[in-house]
Amino acid sequence: MSxxxxxxxxxxxxxxxxxxxxxxxxxxxxxxxxxxxVTEEQSLEWLKEDLEHLHYVLADKYDxxxxxxxxxxxxxxxxxxQLGVSAFSKFKKTIQYIKVKDYxxxxxxxxxxxxxxxxxxxxxxxxxxxxxxx
Length: 134
Known about the structure:
Elements: H1 3-11, E1 14-19, E2 25-28, E3 31-32, H2 40-61, H3 70-83, H4 85-88, H5 92-99, H6 103-111, H7 114-119, H8 121-132
Antiparallel strand pairs: 1-2, 2-3
Helix pairs in contact: 3-8, 5-6, 6-8
């Protein structure tokens, strides 16, 4: 048995973070996250994978998503990427305005949030401005 096969057998694989027997956050085949280093290229690949998955999730959740203009989809995806789909779904008025293609109203609603006031105001303002120009 090769070294890699032996380690894979004994460590087991986990696609999500877990606590190993020593109490460390771990992922994959026993990789301690504390020591994890990642290249920008790998991070970009992860981002692309995450966005591809997010695209499918949003398309499944919202019937207006796939037919929406690309810029609308990009803004919604960035919001959902940052906030998570669950938190994004709480932007009920914004979502309703997007659904009926009232992008100016949607852009104003985006700013009426804790996200825009406290969390990341410059990002929220930039995305709102982009939505307003559609």
